[in-house]
Amino acid sequence: MADSYTPLVYGTGVKATIQRLGGHLAGMIMPNIGAFIAWGLITALFIPTGWLPDKELAALVDPVIKALLPILIAYTGGRMVHGQRGAVVGAVAAMGVVVGSDIPMFLGAMIVGPLAAVILKYVDKFTEQRTRAGFEMLVDNFTAGIVGAAMAVAGVLGIGPVVRVVTDAAGQAVEWLITNNLLPVASVLIEPAKVLFLNNAVNHGVLGPLGVAEAVRQGKSILFMLESNPGPGLGLLVAYLLFGPRPLRPSTPAAMIIHFFGGIHEIYFPYVLMKPRLILAVIAGGAAGVFTFMITGAGLVATPSPGSIFAYLAVTPRGGWLGSIAGIAVATAVSFAVAAVLLGFGRGEKDPAPDVPGPQDAVADPPAPDPAGTEPTSPEPMSTEPMSTEPASTRPVRTEPVSKEA
After folding, report:
1. Alpha-carbon torsion 33, 36, 38, 40, what sign?
2. 109 vs 1, 152, 253, 299, CA distance in Å?
3. Among 213, 235, 243, 314, which residue carries the largest CB count within 10 Å?
4. What is the enclosing helix (H) or strand (E) of 77?
5. Phi/psi at 7 (nearest 5 deg)?
6. Three-state DSSP class for 228?
7. Strand (E) positions, 192-292?
8. CA-wise closest residue to 38 among 248, 212, 232, 254
């Protein structure tokens, strides 16, 4: 399934291994991009700060982001490994990581879904030759149920606590960078945390409280701008639109609108997870944006929620729009430039075009069968001999003159 979205990778080196890993990530994420866009639309429209606030419809936001999307990812990952049985077991296992943590567990779903499918695959190989005729369905159902239940329990007890520890450590590291006036360097931690869907934990759990305290003293705070800047994500999506894999390009305009105008940054996270090296692009864009904010003395009076350009400008103090817009523009430009370089300016996407002439090599292959085809040409006259048998039916005409001689 990953091959539908990424080119085939050849070789056994480290680079090939990383490319295969990225291909598997793309295979898990890409089929579910539509679900991410649906969640982004619901969030942008119906949350209290959205375009059409609706408390009843906003109740869809948390279950979709915390349960449905991780389960879809684990289902797809399991199916890549072991077909439909692996998909079912992966979805069951994903419920463990969903329940084991109160944050979106996309990374956990990417791990536990394929892992559960691999375990079931080996269990099926073990039981295949040891199952008596007539008991196949019973054994298959129970093995899938046992593996799924065991992996769900492992997700609750193992992966959830690990993610909580990672979240707390990231928050403490960001706080240390802030207290030591190393704000641009904070992007090295903030952007990877965002891609792992820890953005709300970092923003509202660490940056928000510190920013409120600073805004009370100074009337504004740059801390509100560290995580919520839409520039890095916008630059990444523009690079995907121009230079990314061709199957992904049609989905990027909608993602750009949801991200930049709707403020739903989560919409671009899967694009980074599909090609992990692009994390460097958003880190560079975030650091450049923060540096621009520092130079221009920009700041916000509150956390922009959601992080759209409209919310950004709405909480910008009077006279501070230039610094805010400049920081977003610089972050967008830097992120786009770095992502374009990492994507090879689309050169990798033109390689399949030469592959199209490659099949012309297959057209050149028929000359190879031609010499072999020259051998069948000898039977072809043989086939003409039966055709001579048809005129052989005219030979009785020759017997007629024989009978006349008699």
Report:
1. negative
2. 17, 11, 27, 37
3. 235
4. helix 69-99
5. -70, 160
6. coil
7. none
8. 254
Which tokens is 148 given?
């799924």
Question: What is the Cα 209 distance to its own chain's centre?
Answer: 32
Summarised one tens digit per residue, pLDDT across range 104-156 is 777 788 889 999 999 999 999 999 888 888 888 989 999 999 999 999 999 88
Of 224, 222, 197, 242, which Cα lies nearest the Cα of 342? 242
Rounded CA separation 262/41 (Å): 8
Using N-to-C axis directions, what is the helix angle for 160-179 and 69-99, rounded to 10°? 100
Is the entire prediction scored with pTM above 0.90? no
CA atoms of 90 and 82, how far apart (whole Å): 10
| Pair 236, 334: CB distance under 8 Å | no
Alpha helices in 155-230 (DSSP H): 160-179, 183-195, 199-202, 208-218
Single-letter residue type at 270:
P
Over the stretch 267-315, which tens digit does the pLDDT of each residue have? 888 888 888 889 999 999 999 999 999 888 888 887 787 778 888 888 8
Q: Which two tokens stand for residue 324?
A: 């805010």
- The encoded tokens of residue 395 equal 């030979």
End-to-end CA distance of the chain: 82
Q: Tally the residues of the chain.
A: 406
